[in-house]
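Retro notes
What went well: the complex prediction finally ran end to end.
Inputs used:
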Amino acid sequence: MNCRFCENSLEHMFVDLGKTPLANSYLTKESDFKIEKEIPLNALICEKCFLIQVDEYEKPDEIFNNYAYFSSYSTSWLEHTKKFVTNTIERFHISENHQIVEIASNDGYLLKNFKEKNIPVLGIEPASNVAEIAKKSGIPTITSFFGTETVEKILDSGKKADLLIAFNVLPHVPDLKDFVLGMKNILNENGIIIIQFSAYLLDVIKKCEFDMVYHEHFSYFSLFTLKKIFENFDLEIFDVKEIFVHGGSLRLFLKSSKNKEINIDKNVEKLLKKEKDYGLQKISTYLNFQNNVEKSKKNIQEFFIEAREQKKKIVCYGAAAKGNTVLNYCNISKKDIDYVVDISPHKQGKFMPGTHIPIYSPEKIKETKPDYIIILAWNLKDEIMQQINFIKNWGGKFVVLIPEVKILK
Ligand SMILES: [Zn+2]
């Protein structure tokens, strides 16, 4: 396998998480358990550009065709994006004369904030079931993956992007170069690109967030590597922010290198230095990750052994992809966990991939009164703890597994 950016041959393993099913392939019936496919989950590192990459075992159209993830189901995320839109309109003086384009626009939850202010929007979303919902709510949406081919069609229709937004999509892109070239091509001369994504490499390594690694996440980036990638396509990062959602995200602001009207913020140099000081420009830092992951696995398994001895009733909250990585890698099974609850009706009634733990509505917690509720979607910890704070009525406790096992007060 060669690096999907610099084409250098990949010889170093970043992390090997064994064989596991696709993290978002929830099973609908018990007879599917037998035919479930397990795929090696390895991430490799490029020695030359430090891009971390998971091999593309499964074609993106298989993964994303009927994607179960609907952004609109997390209230904190909706608030986050609403605030983002308000700040962006203000900072970049966005008006009704500007065209907003969003890549992976989901059900239109973000664009609708622009549309309410009569700013023209266009969404691009590959999952047809999700795109349909967006269209029904009046958000113009092209059902397609983003890349040079899709951009060609948009340009033919006479549209270019004054503001191009790509939230939580960059790590999911297998053909990275075609994707970035597409971004460059659709951008108006003075246009701006804002990218945000989770699994920022500095956080992943620092906090041992190995659960951020799953098959649908093809690439893991440092700012150092991203700068190289975008420069290769004449795009320049002019500002960067670390955002504390989804367990550590990065927000990048880009422009064409030809656009000299925007100055480069000091934040860019600052974060590059922070990464360098942490060792992200040395291969040894990356090669040490596996050891930390194995230590974490040992601690997680010990927690379950102890809890089983004490006959604790354990359930999980949040049927998130990251939870599937942890449970499968640590060999946690139905013997350890009674069930998982999730707020999304699209996941309720299904089974977790690999572990086959059933998924119910959060209402179930009131019926069975568990001792421990493990928050698998730990990025939504505060929100979840607030939602189901009634567990204290019977002495139930919240637990997180990442970055370390912790029973929360
Ligand atoms: Zn490379």
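What we learned: The longest helix spans residues 289-309.
What to try next: split runs per interface for comparison.
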